[in-house]
Request: fold
Amino acid sequence: MAETKWVYGFDEVADAEKHTGGDWDGVRALLGGKGANLGDMTRLGVPVPPGYTVTTEACLAYLAGGEEFPPGCWDQIETALGRVEKATGKRFGDPREPLLVSCRSGAKFSMPGMMDTVLNIGLNDEVAEGMVRLTGDERFVYDSYRRLVQMFGGVVLGQPDEAFEEVLERHRHEAGVAIDSELSADRLKAIVAEFRALAPGFPIDPRQQLRLATEAVFKSWNGKRAIDYRNAAGIAHDLGTAVNIQTMVFGNMGEGSATGVAMSRNATTGEAKIEGDYLINAQGEDVVAGIRATKPLEQLADDLPEMYDQFAAIAARLERHYREMQDMEFTVERGKLWILQTRAGKRTAQAAVRIAADLADEGLISREEAVMRVKPDQVDFFLHPQFSAESLRGAVKLAKGLNVSPGAAVGIAAFDADLAERWAKVDGKPTIMVRPETKPDDVHGMLAAEGILTSRGGRTSHAALVARQFGKPAVVGVAELEIDMAARTLTVAGRTITEGDWISIDGTSGAVYLGRLETVVPDISDPWLMKLLSWADELRTLRVRANADYPVDAERARRYGAEGIGLTRTEHMFFETERLPLVQKMIMTTDPAERAEALAGLLPYQRGDFEGLFRAMDGLPVIIRLIDPPLHEFLPSSHDLTKRLIDLKVEEARGAAVAGDIAEVEGLLARVEALHEANPMLGTRGVRLGIMIPELTRMQVRAVFEAACNVTRDGVKVHPEVMIPLVSHVNELKRQREVLEAEARQVMAEQGLEIEYLFGTMIEIPRAALTAEEIAQYAEFFSFGTNDLTQTTFGISRDDAESGFLMRYLSEGILAENPFATLDRNGVGKIMRLAVEGGRATRPNLEVGICGEHGGDPKSIALCHELGLDYVSCSPFRVPIARLAAAQAAVEMPR
Ligand code: ADP
Ligand code: MG
Ligand code: MG
Reply:
């Protein structure tokens, strides 16, 4: 059996490829990302200092074998070193023509938690003297030597770096210089001696240096830093790290030498222009360490013009080769350019979008690849203000809550809606509305505020729903906030914020910050984003609709690319101030005539709302869901009523004539108590309500069809779809359909117009899904209400769970993901599959979509694609994200 190949020269990358069957990902796993690319660049003819890679397999064998090199490994290292000596014409450890090398770790995935690099291996007193004779540059030689001892001491021997830095600091002070490169040769020599005393374990034998450094890299794979990093980044623990041994090139050989890092494009904006930093007369990490002020790469064109041109050409070439923006390290040694590393560059969301679009336009990647390269979350960036990176650096984070509505917001804390509105509108001060929780009466303050912060409530709390509806950044359920409404203060993390003080909230992450952070506002109309999304539209098969209750939302949704409305919640319209009394009257009365009167009063409002939606969605389908919530939500709470009653009785005792008011409040209270349900989530709501009060259904249907006829006369194309919520039995639907069809026919006869419409239902109770064949006899479309479907499938009340046991389930791994954020594939997903199959068995052209919040979650969108849904519907602010996610699902799973 042939001996395992543990070591690959940079010029043997083709052998590594053969070993992994031509699979580049396999080469990266074997040689690490850094080693694979060093080999690849060598093959391309890019100037890379010669060297070799000890494989990740050798690392794993070393660790498994009780920290011993596996058989043959050290011999192969010696052989490889011999080949490097030959290639460079130098000899490792020989003072006459010394070869120095670096020892660099490199795992498959870049891991900042890993061991650092050791440069200048191969130096000792004797070799140093030899190098001085050769180069005539004592300063350079002892600078290199002190770096070796310092790095070896820190990295291999575990000496804290501070001790070394103190020595340097003292010498700089004594010599009266600001930077290390200005220290004289004599001083550097003295520093080396002091460093050696600090690192008594430093081996004089270059081979021993090499061996210990290599072993230290191997061992660092199991170091605490590395393990923590892998746990956090989700990187497997069984990959191992490779070690790269590479001929040293020197950027610290005087004014004709330099070292730097550069990106092939701007990593912030994505502009197709190389950018970077460099230092003249410096080595390795000096550039990133920030000890000396670096120069911008453009200046290299003046300092060393030929080097700049060569580098720019290589950057362009590497970008073409990898078909991706590159992050590179280079060194110039006395007029000769060397490339020391290249890898895909990290970038902002904005840059990611522009670079993907540009690379496709330049023909380097296909449009499909461009669409796959941008993460849906990166699109989200364009839709909301963000805190600038600089301001976050010094920010004081106070707490973290639920990130229910994305975007950054900054303002002065206002503890009630009226004040928030006054400060914002009258005084023109940005405000953050801070409340324990919000109620429908608070909406005016929420709208005026920049953002909303509450200490209670979950993802479906009033604050969360309203915030998402209007695209207001919001953080809710921050349990640590102690809001003292009497003192008008907020205490958190040992700090007290008084009303009027500045705070900043990040609805994207859920973080709350002290003071006034700076925000930056990106933009959906970014031309590269528009281009990328238009490519996504060509690829996707899922349609994207929006959930919108108001014409302004519908218009925004359309601007963002929505292809219709998947959910209009009609009850939101009932909560508005001037309508609520009519709604309450309708609920309070038991007299049919009075109820009819109240409903007749509501009709014009509803009709007006629908007309607005139809106009905004001209030519596109609009799903209108009939009233869903239990009636008590429209009445004051019994708690408030009881308090009011007590106040009135006190007033009466003092002689006030309030008998009439008392009777009214008593009446309300009696009705509220009669409507009280032990479990309203499973009580009289949805279709059940429509069956109990068919007049309500009739009024809503009349409003829909009168609105449709009115706008049709103005030339608007309407496609209404009427949707019944919370159906569990086919007979419920059958009954509602009769009521609805009769009313619709009557309106159309009155108006003398024929409106094409669909009648359908939400699927949000498992029984409806399980009997989808029957339900589809009466439904022309299904829409999964996955918020309720998840609640009813799990038997979990979301609001209670998210502020309670669900968090524990997630932290302890009982549930891997929050099923209210990402569809539960195995349970809820299975029920959805049954419903799709059952429904289409009865009605092959059944239209199926989803309108729960999952409709805006990329992973859930992929499942919807897989299940063969026709569309997803989500908040207008998620529409662009959904367009991209749907395209990615289509590319990954063609259908
Ligand atoms: P990291 O992964 O932390 O960037 P590297 O192995 O890339 O570590 O090395 C750290 C620094 O040392 C980089 O600036 C790199 O360019 C430089 N360096 C590494 N090897 C050599 C070498 N053989 N010659 C010159 N500089 C080197
Ligand atoms: Mg480093
Ligand atoms: Mg590097």
Residues 116-117, 285 surround magnesium ion (ligand 2) (CB under 6 Å). The chain has a mean pLDDT of 93. The first strand starts at residue 7 and ends at 9.
